[in-house]
Amino acid sequence: MTATLTPDILSALEAQAIELPSWAFGNSGTRFKVFGTPGTPRDPYEKIADAAQVHEHTALAPTVALHIPWDKVASYDDLRAHAEGLGVALGTVNSNTFQDDDYKFGALTHEDDRIRRKAIDHHLECIDIMDATGSRDLKIWLAEGSNYPGQNDLRARQDRLQDSLQQIYARIGENQRLVLEYKFFEPAFYHTDVPDWGTSYVQVAALGERAMVCLDTGHHAPGTNIEFIVMQLLRLGKLGSFDFNSRFYADDDLIVGAADPFQLFRILDQVIRGGGLNNPDVAFMLDQCHNLEAKIPGQIRSVLNVQEMTARALLIDREALAAAQSANDVLGANAIYMDAFQTDVRPALAEWRESRGLPADPMAAFAASGYLERIEADRVGGVQAGWGA
Ligand code: PSV
Ligand code: MN
Ligand code: MN
């Protein structure tokens, strides 16, 4: 089946915005090997220039998330002007409490007040940066937990976490938000201090209205019904953002929609059902790394995957579905749902892109632009930016 996209669907698609992570453009890898890639950015300015390419070819990615200290610069006003000059804006600021020896046994949950203070101060510095960049969201992912039963007092760590978050939240501005990400394991393997949406919800609900949950699609146990969590968080008004990526086994950080496009469709269905599409309260972001494939095309493919699955989810005949559901027509309801998923939206999207002055095939247009060859030639020497740099 091929699609006819109605004006309503097209205007919803036109409003879609997906934030790119600066770290997708730097080198990254597994704990076995980080492969260097010719043309990789040497500093945050070059990462933003690469991100702007994705937006130029797709009109889908108007903002870039920063990671501090990886993206530390002398002047954030200057970085902001650089981004704006390239047609993009600076987005979410991600804190980092996972690469400092002091944080070996925790950061916001640490027993030692000196270390906990240092971790809180890092977040206050991130908020100062947000003031300069014009960013709205502070995203916190914590690498905290323990490896062995009995190693730590689980409950005391929750209490210290709440106290630390309160101190950070007190500095969050009127138009800013604190977004807390959860992850069920890794780098700690016995327990993590924010392992699931429930813990994140409990922690942010105690802070206030401007504290929300971040759902990273790769941070759940295999078999988890992620769209159910999406539904519940939207229902509670606490879904602040998505970190989109895909996974086969653990936190693989692969291209969103690559492993299981149907799961992405189901998630986007619940986003639409819950009023989360193009809702400023629900930020769409990618959290991915490209270790083997070229990074800019990897990001272009990713935002297109989100766009395609959004278009398919918008095709669900909701009236017919509701009628079938009320009639307990099990197979009828499932068929309506699957009809939308099985519809090929690619030709219609290509035509629509062209009608807006965008390339029908953004992957091919980027490849033909010569940008990759240019950066490969220009960025010889210097230190490539990446995880930890
Ligand atoms: C580590 O799991 C992680 O992938 C989290 O998902 C964060 O969002 C990201 O790193 C950047 O800090
Ligand atoms: Mn994430
Ligand atoms: Mn992750």
TrEMBL record:
Superkingdom in the source lineage: Bacteria
InterPro entries documented for this protein: L-rhamnose_isomerase, Rhamnose_iso-rel, Rhamnose_isomerase, Xyl_isomerase-like_sf
Keyword Cytoplasm: yes
Keyword terms, alphabetized: Cytoplasm, Isomerase, Manganese, Metal-binding, Rhamnose metabolism
Keyword DNA-binding belongs to the record: no
Gene3D superfamilies the record matches: Divalent-metal-dependent TIM barrel enzymes
GO BP terms: L-lyxose metabolic process; rhamnose catabolic process
GO molecular function list: L-rhamnose isomerase activity; manganese ion binding
Name of this chain's protein: Rhamnose isomerase
UniProt source species: Microbacterium mangrovi
Lineage start: Bacteria, Bacillati, Actinomycetota, Actinomycetes, Micrococcales
